[in-house]
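During the reporting period the student researcher (J.K.) took over the structure-prediction task from the postdoctoral fellow and processed the backlog of single-chain submissions. One of the processed entries is reproduced below for the supervisory committee.
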Amino acid sequence: MLAKIPATVVTGFLGAGKTTLIRHMLDNAKGKRIALIINEFGDLGVDGDILKGCGDEACSEEDIVELSNGCICCTVAEDFIPTLEKLLDRETPPDHIVIETSGLALPQPLVRAFQWPEISTRVTVDGVVTVVDGKAVSDGVFASNLEAVDAQRKADENLDHETPLSELFADQVACADMIVVNKTDLLGADEAEALTAKLTTESRPGVHVVKTSMGALPVEVLLGQGAESEANMDGRDEAHHHHHDDHDDDHDNDHHHHHDHDHDDFETFVVERGEIADPKAFAEQVADVIRSHDILRLKGFAAVEGKPMRLTLQAVGPRVDTYFDQPFGTNPRTTRLVVIGQAGLNHAAIEAALTA
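J.K. obtained the following structure tokens:
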């Protein structure tokens, strides 16, 4: 059976920085062909215009689809499913699909739509990424421009319910597989830490809360989460059952997104060791290290005593997958692991734990 194409849902309020996050992802796609579905309406396709300027092999113009008939969570059947089918039916389908919801769309109905029989065998939700305006949320207002949120809410004639922002925010947090606290450059270190800790307690167990300032998230952290969110709806339920929406125009409030940015908030390093004796025990050891040190991703390969094949290892959070992929041949039989996490990881302790 063909592998399902992964889709990432990017949600978050107006001005949180969703578009900036996606621009950065496209600029650093590393050869991945990415298609975008943008929930745009009421305005002249502002996000679409921005993203069409990406001029990169990662996404051509035909890879960007705008849904402009109102709230994506209200138009799943007539709008979203057919759009997704068109992308999947292409002669060369994309490697990954990224869906940017409008600012106040509920992520839950969208994720549940991936259970629909028309698409359920062909595509899976790789992860729901909720982008948070760190400064606004820390100040208790959720979005930095509340007037703009209100204006856009009124502009959507399909909108049949109005819901308090606090409830919508709770929905976005409840559905997340990863929460990106953006604009942390506008917060003090203690404020950023306090907000991250609060969001960690408010989200489901195992959800990573990461900090960044310009949506500059490494692609290998953002994509490839393998969450299969549509099959794991426990705990993601809405706090209420209203529909609501808003148009998203992140870049208006993200005036500094043109600056060059790097991944100062994240770090990557390599740990090498000799052969391992027992793959199962080693996978458990790796999972323990990940939990103790809050590592985001860990990937690499190991040499197993007495086995000619290389053991490939990939971990997202504490979930570790291993499989034998190819013979070592003439290559040296070493174990080599790449560790990815937020800046400030304790290299020496992690290396000691992985080589124990």
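The committee noted the following: The first strand starts at residue 5 and ends at 11.
J.K. will present the remaining backlog at the next meeting.
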